[in-house]
Amino acid sequence: MNLHIDFGKRMKKIREEMEKSNLDFFVGTRTVSLSYVSGAFVPWRSAVLVSRDGFEALVTLLIDSERIRNESRMDNIIPYAPLPGMDLFDIIIAQIKEKGFGKAKIGVELGHSPRGNTGYLFATEYEMLREALPDARFQKALGVVDRSCYIKEPEEIKYLRQAAAIADAGMERVAEELYPGITETEIAGIAEKELRRRGSEYHWAFTGSSEVASGYRAYYALNGTTQPTEKVVQKGENIIVDIHPMYRLYYSDLAHNFIIGEPTAEQRKYGEMYVQVADTIVRNFKAGHTVGKVHTAVMEKVQSLGFPGTVIPSFGHGLGVMGHEWYPAIVNNDEFRDVVLEENVVEVAFLAMSVPGVWGMRLEYPVLVTAAGGEPLCKTPLEMTVID
Questions:
Q1: Using a CB cutoff of 8 Å and minimum separation of 24, what contacts does 221-224 make?
Q2: 154-387 CATH pick, 3.40.50.970, 3.90.230.10, 3.40.50.2300, 3.40.720.10
């Protein structure tokens, strides 16, 4: 349990967001919602139930219910199981009816995502709710948690700083042990051992924990998810290492670039362009800037450099509790363009640049939004680390 988090204040924010949307009851199924409301590690399909008049419960899998009851800040832990009458949504529906919200306005986490098992309400589950509660009115309510956890409290920032320090330590250990002939899986093992040694409680589940890519695997045009393989790292190859420790439910997300041996002139040239673009992202995480303004500044920098390769036009995402606080992504679309960055928001600066078949680098870098611009939470440099 996160003893230093003010959950009373947190739940007040949740209920204020419910009131703004005129919601009487909220059913949260996303992993981020489970973590944020319960204050516990909840890996199974579960739901938090919150009413505006004070009711709170967590419905979670029977085999984990005793542990979660001990570790959560919540008193009302209701177990479910794949047994008649004990299904997750049988219990949710029964609780809604029992508490008198069968004709209420109910917020649910409808949506979709490319980011793996994030916990959005399934279509079959939504139909179950509508059939069992025909007089209720249902509303998409992703903003209840997204807006509540957007600006971080001081204690949350402390946890995020500690998670960032753990990430730095893991990356430093990788730098100390890289050599020609090491495999990508060995690199991941080095990083993960150090993360655990420093106090990381969990790793990113959505992308298979730590990511490592070397040589041609670092040059993919869109530089996506790169689980480590048994590929042997050669001298002169770009190496991307992307690690995701968790401290007291709070994540870090750090991707750094290495090369063993002297870089070629071409690798240095592209590496210098990468640093300039990365620095532009970090500097523009400034309170008062809109997501659209940040995105425009970064794209203008890319264009001014005349970079000849591929750049993914997405330059960051939110960071916080387990479950991937995506809000807001630094993407120039209708959903995020006008979102204003505020002080004490934490974003991950993201950058993926590649010249297919030649070179590739990736940045993931946790940054605190301040009035003066972005404050990096990690001390790992933006520049590529050259291993002699």
A1: 221/310, 221/354, 221/356, 222/310, 222/312, 222/352, 222/354, 223/310, 223/312, 223/352, 223/353, 223/354, 223/360, 223/362
A2: 3.90.230.10
Q: Please give the Cα distance from 100 to 53 (Å, whole number).
A: 11
141: DSSP letter: -
For the chain, the structural domain boundaries read: 7-148, 154-387
Q: Rg of the chain over CA atoms, in angstroms?
A: 22
Task: Please name the amino acid found at residue 16.
Answer: E
Buried b (16+ CB within 10 A) or exposed e, 12-48: ebbbebbeeeebbbbbbbbbbbbbbbbbbbbeebbbb
Yes or no: say if 327 and 150 are a contact pair by the CB < 8 Å rule: yes
Cα separation, 306 vs 308, whole angstroms: 6
Phi-psi map region of 106: left, alpha, beta (phi>0 left; psi -120 to 50 alpha): beta
pLDDT digits (tens, 9 = 90+) for 88-113: 999 999 999 999 999 999 999 998 76
DSSP one-letter string for 99-114: TT-TTSEEEE-----S
Stated pTM of the model: 0.95
Q: Which two tokens stand for residue 208?
A: 């298979």
Alpha helices in the chain (DSSP H): 7-20, 31-38, 62-71, 88-98, 123-132, 143-148, 154-177, 184-197, 265-283, 291-305
- The letter for the amino acid at 38 is S
Give the three-state DSSP class for 164: helix
> In a 10 Å sphere around its CB, with 0-12 CB exposed, 13-18 middle and 19+ buried, how is residue 82 labelled?
exposed
- CA distances, 135 to each of 93, 96, 103, 106, 363 (Å): 13, 12, 5, 11, 49
Match domain 7-148 to its CATH number in 3.40.350.10, 3.40.1190.20, 3.30.479.20, 3.40.50.720: 3.40.350.10
320-354, pLDDT tens digit by residue?
A: 998 778 899 999 999 999 999 999 999 999 999 99
What CA dihedral angle connects 384, 173, 166 and 203, to 10 degrees? 90
**Residue 177 one-letter amino acid:** E
